[in-house]
Amino acid sequence: MRFKRTLAGFWLRRLVAGAIAALVVSAPSFADAATARLRWLPRGTAVTSGFAIFVRNAGSQYPVNPVWTGNPAPAADGSISTTITYTAAPSGVNYFAVVARANPNLESALSQELYLGTPNPCRNDSCAAKTTCDFSPRANGSPCDDTSFCNGPEVCLSGTCDASAARDCADTVACSVDSCDEAAGRCVHSTPPGCCLACDSSDPCLADACSQGECSAPEGIDIEVNRVRFMHKSADVKLAAKGRFYADPSIDPSATGATVEFRTPDGAVLYSSTIAPNRIKKGSDGGRYRFAVTSAQSKFLGNGIVRLDFRVKGDLWLVTLKAETPLLIDAFNEPTVTWGLRLGETCVRRMDMPCDQTSKLSVCR
Predict the structure, then answer these.
(1) Do 83 and 67 contact (CB within 8 A), yes or no?
(2) What angle do CA 113, 119, 124 make, to 5 degrees?
(3) Are 242 and 340 in contact (CB under 8 A)?
(4) How do beta strands 305-313 and 114-116 pair?
(5) Which pLDDT tens digits describe the chain residue by residue (365 residues)?
(6) N or C: where does the chain have the smaller number of CB atoms within 10 Å of the terminal CB?
(7) Contact 196/176 with Cβ under 8 angstroms?
(8) Rounded distance, CA 227 to CA 187, Å?
(9) 183-215 burial, b for 16+ CB within 10 Å, e for fewer?
(10) Distance separating alpha carbons of residues 317 and 254, to the nearest angstrom
């Protein structure tokens, strides 16, 4: 048998890197046969007399003869395409590769392979050359997830994808209804009225616990409000708020960060902004924590807050908040608001503050 020589040099390297750019297959045109349209982008400057397309079945090497040879004119972008007819594999999986030819006995190595169908995820199936292929099983324990969340993750076992049990979405709440939401990719826990008091409350400090089915979560800490004032000026709304609350003096906002929120009485979020821990400066005596930037810097950061200041005296916390952003317009227009602050696991709030409103000013207490 006369062995074919291989095209060498720059042309070969570029062909392997970018031979096939796209692959489209049509419906089978007759029994056991199908048509596919291939498009590839040859690169380099070597002289070629044409191209050849080889097709193999999954788990098999390429046959001696190609299913197509030719040299179509390139498109405007330099790509070449053609439609081929091939025999569909019994498994439903076929692999395609292209070679460049200078004459029938001188051709490049295979391009990278493309496949049609769904290969076995637990077996290697690739050919570096037409007769040099790897069909070995993947190692036991290799992931072969079928992308379904609700039936859990799968792994390979002896060359096949081992079926997994359905995901366990049960929680510790006896009266909750537990289910799996495939579209959202998460477990869902529905609690009917009276089952979980956290779910029947608009307390923002219970919102996270409720969503996780935790009915025993404690209520938030109340803020004694001096004032919360919104001023509507031009395109911005200015906010000035002061209050006090009692909490653990060991809380460190420079380690937890801080989240500021305003909500409606039914719990809908009107405004929310989080300040990263590294932007909150801790005083030398440990009794003060401060975030302060200019209005321009605040707009760059995107949160609208220009000052958040905590002064700690024993377990008494004094808080001062200033902000300037059009994102506060919904809170300005709301006749009753809830002000919330979260410092890590600690949540404080003043719920359902009525607001005295004019066209330019809203003062809530």
Answers:
(1) no
(2) 70
(3) no
(4) unpaired
(5) 233 333 333 233 333 333 333 444 443 444 468 999 999 988 765 667 899 999 999 999 999 999 999 999 999 988 999 999 999 999 899 999 999 988 767 888 899 899 999 899 999 999 999 999 999 999 998 988 777 788 877 889 888 888 777 888 887 666 778 889 988 888 887 767 666 666 667 788 877 666 565 666 667 899 999 999 999 988 899 999 999 999 999 999 999 999 999 999 988 899 999 999 999 999 988 899 999 998 888 877 767 899 999 999 999 999 999 999 999 999 999 999 999 999 998 999 999 999 999 999 999 99
(6) N
(7) yes
(8) 41
(9) eeeebebebeeebbbbbebebbbbbebbeebbb
(10) 15
- Secondary structure (DSSP) of 304-347: -EEEEEEEEETTEEEEEEEEEEGGGHHHHH-SEEEEEEEETTEE
Cα gap 196→190, rounded to integer Å: 10
- Print burial letters for 132-155: b (CB count within 10 Å at least 16), e (below 16): ebeeeebeeeeebeeeebebeebb
Distance of CA 104 to the CA centre of its chain: 49
Q: Where are the domains of the chain?
A: 5-134, 137-167, 177-211, 221-364
Q: How far apart are CA 269 and CA 349, in angstroms?
A: 13
Name the CATH code of domain 5-134 (choices 3.40.50.150, 3.30.365.10, 2.60.40.10, 3.30.360.10): 2.60.40.10
* Residue 259, both tokens: 């989240």
In this structure, are residues 50 and 71 in contact, taking their beta carbons and an 8 Å threshold? yes
pTM of the complete model: 0.49
